Each structure stands twice: as structure tokens, then as C-alpha cells.
Amino acid sequence: MKSKSTTLKIIVLVVLVMLTCVYLLPIYVMLTNSLKTLPEITQRTYLAFPKIPQFQNYTVALFGSPNFLIPMGKPIINSTIITVTVTLLAAFFGGLGGYYLSRSKSTFSRIIFVLVGIALYMPYQAVIIPLTTITAKSGLANSHFGLILAYLIINIPLASTLMGTFFLSVPRELEEAAQVDGASKIQIFFRIVIPISLPAYASVAILIFTQVWNEFFISLTLSTPRTQTVQVAMAMTEGSTISPYNLQMAASLLTVAVPLLFFLFLGRYFVRGILAGALKG
Questions:
Q1: CA distance 47 to 54
Q2: Which one of 61, 139, 164, 213 has the largest count of C-beta atoms within 10 Å of its C-beta?
Q3: 46: pLDDT confidence band, cut at 50, 70 and 90?
Q4: Beta bridge partners of 261
Q5: DSSP labels for 57-71?
């Protein structure tokens, strides 16, 4: 039995190492090629280290050049403003909605839960025309607020469903004890439920942040050159006469760095929140 256990551990370790290498390979390729010169890129030695690291490629990727017409500095700022705002608002309102859905047993709440589930799985293509109409009639078209509103409409149902699933695992005895002490429902939610639900909020924040940051279709439809996000800008990173792959790799790495750092910052809460929401009682 001990021999079988050791063999199983070795197999699991080997599989984890292989999966880690597969996952990190694209980042490694982006990193090495972002530091190369254009002649080195044309040699197609994508896995080789650069002879002399060209750190100025990142400056060019941020601020542009004659061979790199789409600087990534402004799109990164736009995406950061939109994504952070949507993440905070969606987590807050999703928490309120999820708490209501998890505690109310009325027919109305059940209907709302079904509607939220439908909205959760509805594809972007089915709602892009209504979203465009809403942002246009609300006067928010061609602005950051228009994109924020569109992403909130899409992501609040996701946040409500995930947070509601987690709140089902929160013992109601805590809330009943607070009610006996004279606390209102608002005080119970903000002083008791939210502090013990921080892992779930972190998980929801990671999911929404990553989804909004990587979203392309809605941003392509609703954004303007002033509000262009990183995904739209990355699709347009082409030179006037050549394809500067080294600069494109630098821009790609800058684009990936923000959500990666966000995940590393909150990653330890991610699995904890997902597991806590999967267990009831």
C-alpha cells in the first residue's frame, strides 16, 4: 500500500509539473521574444534567450513608435478604470442580490432567480443590440460609463448567483443571534455576513475582473478611440510596413500582467471561496 501511495504521488507530481510547463510556456515565449530585436525575431528561435535584452521595447509598446502605431498606455488605463469599477460595483450589488435570493423563499424571489439564471447564460450576441440602445438613449455612448453600464448588466447576474450560493452556507444562527441583540437586516449584512464572506467576494472579484479585462466583442462594439480597451488595441497592433512581433509580445505581456498580478494578489482566497460556496452547513 505504501508503494502504491508513493507511485501515485510521483505520478501526480509529474502531471502537475507538465501542466505547469504547458501553462507557463506562452508567458515564457512572450517574455523572451519581447526582449529581442526584430532580426532575432525573424530567425524564429522563439524559445531562445535574447542576446542583448531590449528593455526599451516596453517603452515603445506603451507610448508607440513609427513601426508600432497603437500605443498600449492609454488602453491599459481605460481597461483598468472600466474593469476595477465594474468589479467593485458588480461584487457589491451582486452580494446584495445574492443575499436576498438566498434568504427569501417567496414566489417572487424564485422567479427572479430563474430570470437571473437565464441572464447568466445568455450569449453576448443576443444582447448586444439592447445594450447599444440602452447606452445610446441614456447618453452614455462613447464614454467609459457606457462600457461600465454594459458590463454591469452582464456581470451582476453572475455575481448574484455565485454570492447567493455562498450565502446558503452561512449559518443562519449567526443572523438570528444578531437579531436577538437588536441588529437590523442591513447591520447584519454589513457587519456579520460580509466579513465572513470575504473569500467569496475575492473569488467573484477575480472571475469578474478577468472576464471584463479579456472581453473583446462588447468593447469592439461600444468603445471609441478615446475609450479603447487593451483587447481591441491588441487586435490593431500592426506596423505600417512590417509586423514588429517583438513589440507585439511586449504589448501582450503588459496586457497579461495586470490580471495576473490581480489573481496573484487575491489567489489565496479564490479556492477557499469556491470550496466554501460548494459546501452547505
A1: 16
A2: 61
A3: confident
A4: none
A5: HHHHHHH-BTTB-S-
Three cell numbers written together for 171: 449559518
Q: pLDDT tens digit string along 211-237? A: 999 998 888 888 888 888 998 888 877
| 70 closest CA partner among 78, 79, 61 | 61
Residue 232 to residue 227: CA distance in whole angstroms: 10
* Pick from 160, 190, 187, 175: nearest CA to 277: 160
Residue with cell 513589440: 247
SS3 243: coil
* Cβ(54)–Cβ(246) below 8 Å: yes
Distance between CA atoms of residues 215 and 151, nearest Å: 9
pLDDT of res. 4: 64
The three cell numbers locating residue 146: 457606457
Ramachandran angles phi, psi of 35, nearest 5°: -105, 10
> For residue 122, what are the β-bridge partners?
none
Report residue 268 as a C-alpha cell. Answer: 489565496
Backbone angles phi, psi at 22, to 5 degrees: -65, -40
